[in-house]
């Protein structure tokens, strides 16, 4: 075996043990990320914001980008819509 194969094997083993040891707090975060991402994608498509939709779909930011979109961008769009009425 080469040295690079040993390094890759060690990394895979350490990642596996990390996920096994921290199973109970990783899965709720994964589920929360999926919910936030889905809601942000839905809002971006409803508001016809193609660039935000593509960014939210492609970039995996562990929930940071969907929160930024929902907290700031979508709120600004909503307040502009309410002022028109």
How does this structure look, described?
This protein is an all-alpha fold. It has one domain. 86% of the residues lie in helices and 0% in strands. Helix 2 runs antiparallel to helix 3 (50-58) and helix 2 runs parallel beside helix 4 (64-84). The chain is elongated, with a radius of gyration of 19 Å.
Q: What's the short story on this structure?
A:
With 85 residues, the chain is mainly alpha-helical. It has helices at residues 3-21, 23-46, 50-58, 64-84.
What's the alpha carbon Rg, rounded to whole Å? 19 Å
Determine the mean pLDDT: 81
Largest sheet: none
Principal-axis shape equals: elongated
Number of domains: 1
Order of helices and strands: HHHH
How many helices? The count is: 4
Beta fraction = under 5%
Unreliable residue stretches:
none
Q: Please tally the β strands and state the result.
A: 0
Percent of residues in helices:
over 70%
Question: Whole-Å distance between the termini?
Answer: 70 Å
Structural class: mainly alpha
Identify the notable features of this structure and list them briefly:
about 80 residues, single chain, about 85% helix, mainly alpha, 4 helices, about 0% strand
Helix-strand layout with pairing:
Elements: H1 3-21, H2 23-46, H3 50-58, H4 64-84
Helix pairs in contact: 2-3, 2-4
């Amino acid at each position: 075996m080469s040295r690079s194969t040993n390094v890759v094997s060690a990394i895979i083993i350490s990642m596996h043990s990390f996920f096994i040891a921290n199973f109970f707090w990783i899965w709720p975060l994964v589920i929360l990320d999926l919910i936030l991402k889905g809601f942000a994608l839905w809002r971006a498509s409803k508001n016809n914001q193609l660039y935000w939709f593509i960014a939210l779909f492609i970039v995996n930011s562990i929930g940071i980008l969907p929160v930024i979109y929902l907290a700031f961008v979508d709120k600004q769009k909503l307040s502009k819509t309410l002022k028109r009425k």
